[in-house]
From TrEMBL:
It is an enzyme of class 3 (hydrolase). This is Probable M18 family aminopeptidase 2. Pfam families: Peptidase_M18. InterPro entries: M18_aminopeptidase_2, Peptidase_M18, Peptidase_M18_dom2. GO terms for cellular component: cytoplasm. The keyword Ligase does not apply. The keyword Protease applies. GO terms for biological process: proteolysis. Belongs to the peptidase M18 family. Its cofactor is Zn(2+).
Length: 430
């Protein structure tokens, strides 16, 4: 594995504290590789061999390389991931003044592991919509430095904290921003207006609305005695977005039909105009492929690799896994299987991925959830049912998924990029 690969992921994570920033970072990377940004509201003039991408809602992105062959004969090599991660989002009227402190009301987004959010150095990032000179505009903002914290209650005041502790999402989570003195009430929108001026040099007339989330300012890092691990926020699933973009770049010279899909809102079901359960992918592909017959024939020859992190077997909690399906960090990507269609893998698509791993000399593992536990899901089944493409669900094994700081194997990133690059190079799909 290239030594620059983990550092590239660490840099990408640092540039991507929100889905909007993650998409903007991907867009910059693609443009540096010669991809042309298209606007969905414009007419497209596509050329064979061209490389293009579109974004929607500033938080979802689809990039593709036009192959020289007929797509209805060769199919599309597609990799899918998602740009969002569980977090705490600021409410519309968030100002809370309690006991002389300024706090912000937050809404829990997705299946957040809440306890690790306490006592962390937090900042804010997202998108702000405002009015300036009578026109409506939006900008991305990132406070970057620590501006908030959710302090724990001292154990002296909560003697049962280490035995059993429930977290009330309404009352226990408002982050603390500042001490308040005097009669003037803090205004969050004014704070955002000041930040827009600092970041973008714009003096806005009024902040109309925003989508802002808190995030941990501690940078991702390669850790462990032998540098075995990557620790950081939003590894689920920005690791897969980054790996997909790297693989697309690595396989560019092959000239095959290749697609990268990174959509928002997976953590809350994907039902949005820019989510996997929305029309974005089908609308883009129909514009690229042409008439209904060409679209259907192409989809029937295509393969989607849905790349989303898997649960590695935890050494402290091995009983939470099926005995025969405990993926280990740094032992390669994991094929995720669920016969109740929480994952879209079939014997055919799983077999294809195993073959790709064999050819790329990448180890491969399997995951099946315990039969007495509920199974999560991915964009795989959703995308497969939306456009009718054969799909395999895979991902790198991870600890502490949905925590504020997750853990993955440093070698697994290289394994994933290698097998995805090999997939993008395939001349013919089965």
């Amino acid at each position: 594995m290239s030594a620059s690969l983990p550092q590239g992921l660490i840099d990408y994570l640092g540039q991507s504290p929100s889905p909007f920033h993650a998409t903007a970072s991907l867009a910059r990377l693609l443009e540096s590789q010669g991809y042309v940004r298209l606007l969905e509201r414009d007419s497209w003039q596509l050329k064979r061999g061209g490389r293009y991408f579109v974004t929607r809602n500033d938080s979802s992105l689809i990039a593709w390389q036009m192959g020289q062959s007929e797509p209805s004969e060769s199919g599309l090599r597609m990799v899918g991931a998602h740009t969002d991660s569980p977090c705490l989002k600021v409410k519309p009227n968030p100002e809370l003044l309690q006991q002389g402190y300024w706090q912000l009301g937050v809404e829990v987004y997705g299946g957040v592991l809440l306890a690790p959010w306490f006592d962390r150095d937090l900042s804010l990032a997202g998108r702000v919509t405002f009015r300036k000179d009578g026109a409506i505009d939006s900008r991305l903002v990132d406070f970057q430095r620590p501006i908030a914290v959710i302090p724990n209650l001292a154990i002296h005041l909560n003697r049962e904290a280490n035995d059993s502790q429930s977290i009330n999402k309404q009352t226990d989570l408002p982050p603390l921003l500042a001490c308040v003195s005097g009669a003037e009430a803090p205004d969050f929108r004014s704070l955002l207006a000041e930040r827009i001026e600092q970041e973008h040099g714009l003096t806005v007339d009024q902040v109309l609305d925003y989508e802002m989330n808190f995030y941990d300012t501690q940078a991702a890092a390669v850790i462990g005695l032998e540098n075995d691990f990557i620790a950081g926020a939003r590894l689920d699933n920005l690791l897969s977005c980054y790996a997909g973009a790297q693989a697309l770049q690595d396989a560019a010279e092959a000239g095959q039909w290749a697609v990268l899909i990174c959509t928002d809102h997976e953590e809350v079901g994907s039902s949005s105009h820019c989510g996997a359960d929305g029309p974005m992918l089908e609308q883009v592909l129909r514009r690229v492929l042409g008439d209904d017959e060409s679209f259907t024939r192409t989809m029937q020859r295509s393969i989607l690799i849905s790349a989303d992190n898997a649960h590695g077997i935890h050494p402290n909690y091995p009983d939470r896994h099926d005995n025969n399906h405990g993926p280990r960090l740094n032992q390669g990507p994991v094929i995720k299987i669920n016969h109740n269609q929480r994952y879209a893998s079939t014997s055919e698509t799983s077999g294809l991925f195993r073959q790709l791993c064999l050819e790329a000399e990448v180890p491969v593992q399997s995951f099946v959830v315990r039969s007495d536990m509920a199974c999560g899901s991915t964009i795989g089944p959703i995308t497969s049912s939306q456009v009718g493409v054969r799909t395999v669900d895979i991902g790198v094994p991870t600890f502490a998924m949905h925590s504020i700081r997750e853990l993955a194997g440093s070698q697994d990133l290289g394994f994933l990029v290698k097998v995805l690059s090999h997939f993008y190079r395939q001349e013919q799909l089965p």
